[in-house]
Amino acid sequence: MTRLIDTVAWVHLEGGRILGARSRGRRLFYIPGGKVDEGESEVAALVREVREELSVTLLPETATHLGTYTAQADGHPEGTLVRMACYTAEHRGTPIASSEIEEIAWLSLADRERTAPVDHAVFDALASAGRLR
């Protein structure tokens, strides 16, 4: 039986690199974001999750859907898929690791294999568009 986890992610690019986060005790980086709670909009979930993880405030009126990607969920049983709606958005504040985040880093295309499987498709799409080096 297939299980689907709905998530959102903030695609924050600077200088051809993307901001990644690594949770405490985990090996792989992921694009910051998280699960959408029942009854919550994707943008509301994005604002909440990014504030919790990175201590920045996203400006919801600037959120732009970049694409939605699906892949096997990292650290879950085979057949558990994660569907990740990716958004760009302007923000206030400087990203710092907080809450359950152990480390943040600016990742390039060369770091693709250091990320969760669903992020691979995002990295590929951004590289094809010339936005990730």
From TrEMBL:
Entries under Gene3D superfamilies matching the protein: Nucleoside Triphosphate Pyrophosphohydrolase
Pfam families with a match to the protein in the record: NUDIX
Superkingdom of origin organism: Bacteria
Keyword entries, A-Z: Hydrolase, Magnesium, Metal-binding
Listed InterPro entries: NUDIX_hydrolase-like_dom_sf, NUDIX_hydrolase_dom
Record-annotated Nudix hydrolase domain positions: 2-130
Cofactor(s) in the UniProt record: Mg(2+)
Keyword DNA-binding tagged: no
Similarity comment: Belongs to the Nudix hydrolase family.
Protein name: NUDIX domain-containing protein
